[in-house]
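Appendix B. Raw example, untouched.
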Amino acid sequence: MIHPTQTLSHWPIPIIVFALGLGGLFGQPPTSVQAASPTTVSSQDREALENELDSLTTRLEAIKAKLKSLSQSSPTPTTPSSQQTEAKLNEEKIQVLDEINIVSTRIVQAPQGITRSVVSRDHIDNQPAKDFRESLESIPGVVLRQRNGPRDFSISIRGFGAKQAFGVRKIKMFEDGFSLTQSDGLSRLDLQDPWFMESITVENGPSSALNGNFALGGTVDFRTRRGRDIDGVETFVVAGSYGYQKYATAIGKEYKHMDAAVFVSHERGDGFRDHSEFDTTTVNANFRFKIDDDQTVTVKASNNDLDVNTPQRLTLQQFQDQPKQAGNGAKANDRSRRDHRTIIGLRYTNRINPNTEISLQGEYDNKDINQKFGIILDQEQPNWKTRADVHHDNRFLGQPLRSHVGIFFDYMESESTNFRNLRDFNAGRENAINNSRGSIRNIGFRIREEWDFHSQWTFAAGLGYEYSQISIDQVNFGFMTGTVDTRASANRTYHNVAPDVSLTFHPTENTQYWGRVSSGYGTPSLGNLTTNSQGLPGANNDLDDERNINIELGSKVQLNQQLAFSLVGFWTFFKDELISQSVFGGTGNFTGNADSSEYRGLEVGVEWIPIDGLTLSGAYTLVDAKFINFTDTFVANGVEVNANRDGSTVPAVEPNVLNLRTAYDHSSGLGGWVEVSWLDDYFVNNANTLKAQSATVVNINAHYAKDVKWGWVRFIKTFVQVDNLFDQTYMGSGAIVADSTADASKQAFLLAPPLSVFGGITIGLF
């Protein structure tokens, strides 16, 4: 029998994509508005209304100017009726401007047939905004685990994305439409401050047809607040347990042709574990310029400077004896991160006709890191990313058709040197271990068609292709001599094709049922190709790219204004999944391919508003992940061992996750919520002999928000929050560890935050 994923790279281009694409891109534009889906009609109606509003605004300006001219030329004072007329005109003008309070006049619709959840500002506001776990874990299918920094969390969607000891992989991340994922597939949440966000959109399931390389588990799209959302100045101060302090300021305003927002924050803390003090400063600026009714330019810049001490992961016995310890005694005092990340982006959008919009985007993303662990790593990775997209609305066989064609190219260079750590409490550099220089190129295209072939049915088909080239030269030095010992080089190319097909039934505006078949792919990183099975520098050139196919059936139903729920079932087939394992005594993580594995499960979401102001919500995720065909390779006592893992559970995947939340907000401004999260235990090794324990955690929050008129102060918000109310001791992170050592020696675990109390205030000025 042929495994479903074995044919992924050989799938033919669906004929329907070409047929719909030709009809969408080259067909005749509609001559009249016919019956269409609500989304298509609203787009056309919006266009007409905006043109009408522009005309009315121009007329009002002319009338106002004429009245002003008459009043200046008349020898008599302005009559009360003239004053009333002018005041009325001013009021009407203001109302019109409020209605068209936008920068870009065209809205690119969200893709249909995809499991999508949105976290709004009211779920982010009035809390410490320490990290994204506070808001994202209320989404079905999503789990966050803390890594080696205050905001460094991994994101897991349906079990994909949490198999490494740091950062985010197998998930594609964006902010304001700019990519946060570098060309090697790594994203980090260090760069972003949750307080800056207006909303967060999560799309579950493989989506490389839309988003290219590394979108194996889904995407996360962060949207920062615009100037119109801030409309003045806001300042935010938080203090809490373990020396935590945060200071943040937002400045924003929307003018006639420009929307500008600038955010700055600084946070520090002593850490709730030994040797985990941190300081981090973040700056984020967004400017949107409206050249005219059809053209918009967006400029984005963000920067994060991080200085953090990091404790060593603990064995199970160390964790049970003293979970707050730094690990390995005094040696842990050598461990720290001094990282810098900068992103600068520019996007130009032009609606070249009423039905066609083009977008050109460029981005510079540089990561400069100095990490001092068992080894010292100095690394710089400048990354260029470009893309061009065309969105076109038309009709095919008399029914609305939305077409999207895009091309993209990104290029990253990487230069790094590893040194042995003297462990002199200053992380002094001893002999160099290796020096490497490499590059990654990704280039490809995407095409997608969405056809509303009936007022209640939408068919969508997409296809993505990508060519990737990975090249690296690494020189390894002798342990004592410092002279050249060996070389590890790689020059690999990968070709990937990703189809995506869905069918959506939407009988009402707030009810959808869909079926989807989608796929994802991800290429190895430079480090994967140059770290051997002992966790030491060496060639690992046999790695294949990983690919998956996802089948899902989903529903999102709003029974009435008080009750809504979602239910999604998925089954994902993985081919050559990249599994990285921490090797005791090594300098890096060894990565191998698991020939085939399967993930299947359920995602359930419920929201009930029994009375005004009271919201009861819940999110439940079930994931059953198994290796189907996998021979694990590791080195034990200097001997390479091959172990059959067929039928074993894939590590770092929680089988069950439950989040329940009760929130109440009164019209007086008082409010609060109680949240209960249950995390199931999960394995941390391929042999399934060692687990991170389960935990039930309760968080509570009380807050007050009120508009005021106190001189320059226009509103005030304040809160008190208690995390881990019952002080549960549990593992906040469990990294996958190789079976080259006994379970008692596996260093896998980091403590989750214990009982913590925070209080803060936000003041809006001007």
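End of appendix B.
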